[in-house]
């Protein structure tokens, strides 16, 4: 099994498959045997007590992988049922050969008639990378029946109905407990709706020489917990608060002072040396009572704000900002200041109303804000999150964090990063305000905009995972703050 840090689209996977087949000279038979063997090995590892197997096979080579697994299971004495749709017999040469070997081992093939036999584990070998459109008719019925059964599922390549390139689910899709991707990790397994279907993902590289994949171009890097220490800023022992930067946060219109407070606390917990907050006068006492480390002030006067901007290292605009004239005035001054800029929430909505390139800025939209920034629908953004990220980067010439399940980070002339962390408990108001503060705090410490966005998105997601534990429901954004402090502390450079 492989755990690779680069993610690929299906075209690259098919290229690697072709290269491996040409090198082996056997038409792909050996590769199919390896795929079936890898899936069988993972099934035995994940469900060591399983003796009754149901293998759902399609007509293509993904079905062939399923036939290989089924034959191996029969030879190990398992009770195996292989099931296909009425018109789902093997159609490729390799699948027919694998099916014949399964029959020779004593196996039989059943046709789906609306019900599924009870099994300890179900193997999904229906579609694989061959998904061209949403499952229809009998295929959709089979998938719905499988999901309703609540039997554990191992998906080969990817759960049927999930797009390997986008993670989108156009209709119904198998809900798997484990997914085994073949050859390379498919980008669609790590973002969007796919996360509701893939379960735990593994990758089987099979017998592909390293040289075979040398010319393949990944479409994204994947970042997880192991990457965090090298992405965070490293402190020297003699550093002082000035070396850690000064974040100026602007926001908190009437009734939304909590948003800018969350962002400010997150900036401090992420290591910023100083944090100022420009907000409404009525919020200043409450902010200072809650967090005396802040420098909070009434931000009504233009000259006062300009002086504060001159003293800052980074400006972050948006949490609780609103879209009234007060907010528009702050937006104008912040976007015109010669400072690194983090833009979120209503700051993004003001940008969407008057689109302009913001080179060097960091934009942190959720899918709805991304849709407004692009003039798309939210559904279109979610249908291809990677394409939406590229469009945002191109349009605004900025670093962009497209938030959501499997957050994406992009920048001009840079390969995107996918954040392989986070959980559903983070779907609550205020969580984005914490992310704004985290990114601003890291940016103030000297990271580049792309470095700060990448490290900040990962740090934020991992803090959310620590805060959630096994109880994500009811988690609040403030629950992340103590975990940010722990995770933001790589070993001090000596």
UniProtKB/TrEMBL annotation:
It comes from the Bacteria. In the N-terminal section; belongs to the NnrE/AIBP family. It comes from Stenotrophomonas koreensis. The lineage of its organism: Bacteria, Pseudomonadati, Pseudomonadota, Gammaproteobacteria, Lysobacterales. It catalyses: (6S)-NADHX + ADP = AMP + phosphate + NADH + H(+); (6R)-NADPHX = (6S)-NADPHX; (6S)-NADPHX + ADP = AMP + phosphate + NADPH + H(+); (6R)-NADHX = (6S)-NADHX. Homotetramer. Transmembrane segments: none annotated. (6S)-NADPHX binds at residues 61-65, 128-134, 157, 259, 320, 366, 433. This is Bifunctional NAD(P)H-hydrate repair enzyme. AMP binds at residues 403-407, 432. Binds 1 potassium ion per subunit. Catalyzes the dehydration of the S-form of NAD(P)HX at the expense of ADP, which is converted to AMP. Together with NAD(P)HX epimerase, which catalyzes the epimerization of the S- and R-forms, the enzyme allows the repair of both epimers of NAD(P)HX, a damaged form of NAD(P)H that is a result of enzymatic or heat-dependent hydration. Signal peptide: none annotated. Its EC number is 4.2.1.136, 5.1.99.6.
